[in-house]
What we know:
Low-confidence stretches: none
Mean pLDDT: 93
Radius of gyration: 16 Å
Number of domains: 1
Distance between the termini: 17 Å
Largest sheet: 5 strands, parallel
Number of strands: 5
CATH class: Alpha Beta
Structural class: alpha/beta
Amino acid sequence: xxxxxxxxxxxxxxxxxxxxxxxxxxxxxxxxxxxxxxxxxxxxxxxxxxxxxxxxxxxxxxxxxxxxxxxxxxxxxxxxxxxxxxxxxxxxxxxxxxxxxxxxxxxxxxxxxxxxxxxxxxxxxxxxxxxxxxxxxxxxxxxxxxxxxxxxxxxxxxxxxxxxxxxxxxxxxxxxxxxxxxxxxxxx
Length: 188
């Protein structure tokens, strides 16, 4: 049983790489918008929506870590300048590590031009209803760059199973294969 945490800024390709990893590993994908898009129609993008989304995620991770499944793939936008995000990542990793499970951290990065292009893909819009307002989504993507640090500094992440991949010019399949090879994951 394992946790594969894919993180990076918006539209970097986390979900599409996660979908490919899901296909190759058989692990289910919980992309971050599954909880966001469940709750935002009811609560908007309010503090209550984020609180409930985090609560749902914690409970899912606790159950998966203690259960009989092989694990889960989770995508996340990690704001490195926010203590709460560090705490969230440490806690979900601890759920798995305390059960003797492996945790794999994969940081994706891509050029801004490529991210803006990916922000409009049909796959993204199909699976993330709240991103269908492309003008809003693009503004949010650009504004977040001023407010948050969405990439780690060199040697900032101390976990044993960590890699960083620039996927600007790589397909989701190529990136997923690199992840499988780096962590010696059982992939089809």
